[in-house]
Write a structure and sequence with these properties.
Shape: globular
Number of helices: 11
Bound molecules: 3-methyl-2-oxobutanoic acid
CATH superfamily: Phosphoenolpyruvate-binding domains
Strand content: 5-15%
CATH topology: TIM Barrel
Radius of gyration: 17 Å
Structural class: alpha/beta
CATH architecture: Alpha-Beta Barrel
Length: 268
């Protein structure tokens, strides 16, 4: 079976076909998600919180990201492998190029994801000139949690929404192959998805994004503490015949494809 590529995902957006993405951190889950038809596996730096038990994603290192990417790469054969640049691994374009190179050469990443808008334009240009596919993460930026004062919805007022909208267009122009929008009002998610030609992945960004992503442990209901509003426990939905983790992942894929997830209660 051939691997999904950025071209496959672009064609899906062009056809109006919904794309599914989940985070993965190890080989067994990667294999299960692959078999369930998830198109993108994100080795997210959320692993700092859900695997390592830290309060934020900030302490995660590049070596740790490479290790988890290697594990996920061994378990998956079909999904596109997208990997987060950890905090400060992309502090300037030169360092970002080195970090992305290691994630691809040593880890097996097919695409890197980095957080930030206008400040990342030069880096996005540099990476894409070197043939590295980039997903730019906008809206709530977990690596900026201390500057943002917490994990809060972004782009609620007119100026903030305009900044995110302009950043999205500028990042596409700089060569980004994909965007990820986290925790923004559903209307903004819809507008940006319509206005850019590249696929837009949403998490807490409404049902009209081209793709949806969730943190795997949130959608399996095993993250300790309160589940974020935008997430959903797909294990608790189980009915006879479709229970267990594989059933939950299949329900997630079906719900994204049919447009029934995210529903109103998951949006801002
Ligand atoms: O690290 C991660 O898992 C992410 C998701 C929240 C999209 O970036």
């Amino acid at each position: 079976m051939s691997r999904i590529t950025v071209t496959t995902l672009q064609a899906m957006k062009n056809r109006g076909e919904k794309i599914t993405c989940l985070t993965a951190y190890d080989s067994s889950f990667a294999s299960l998600l692959d078999d369930a038809g998830v198109e993108i596996l994100l080795v997210g730096d959320s692993l700092g919180m859900v695997i390592q038990g830290r309060d934020t994603t900030l302490p995660v290192t590049l070596d740790e990201m490479i290790y988890h990417t290697q594990c996920v790469a061994r378990g998956s054969h079909r999904a596109l492998l997208m990997v987060d640049m950890p905090f400060m691994a992309d502090a300037d374009p030169r360092q970002a190029l080195q970090s992305a190179g290691r994630l691809m050469k040593e880890g097996g990443a097919q695409m890197v994801k980095l957080e930030g808008g206008a400040m990342q334009l030069e880096t996005v240009r540099r990476l894409t000139e070197h043939g590295i596919p980039v997903c730019a993460h906008l809206g709530l930026l977990p690596q900026s949690v201390h500057k943002l004062g917490g994990y809060k919805v972004q782009g609620r007022d007119v100026q903030a929404a305009a900044r995110i909208r302009n950043d999205a267009l500028a990042l596409q122009e700089a060569g980004a192959d994909m965007l990820l929008l986290e925790c923004v009002p559903a209307v903004l998610g819809a507008e940006i998805s319509q206005n850019v030609s590249i696929p837009v992945i949403g998490i807490g960004a409404g049902p009209d994004c081209d793709a949806q992503v969730l943190v795997l442990y949130d959608m399996l209901g095993i993250t300790p503490g309160k589940r974020p509003r935008f997430s959903h426990d797909f294990v608790s939905d189980s009915e006879a015949g479709s229970c267990g983790i594989a059933g939950a992942v299949r329900r997630y894929v079906e719900a994204v494809k049919s447009g029934s997830f995210p529903a109103e209660q998951h949006c801002f």
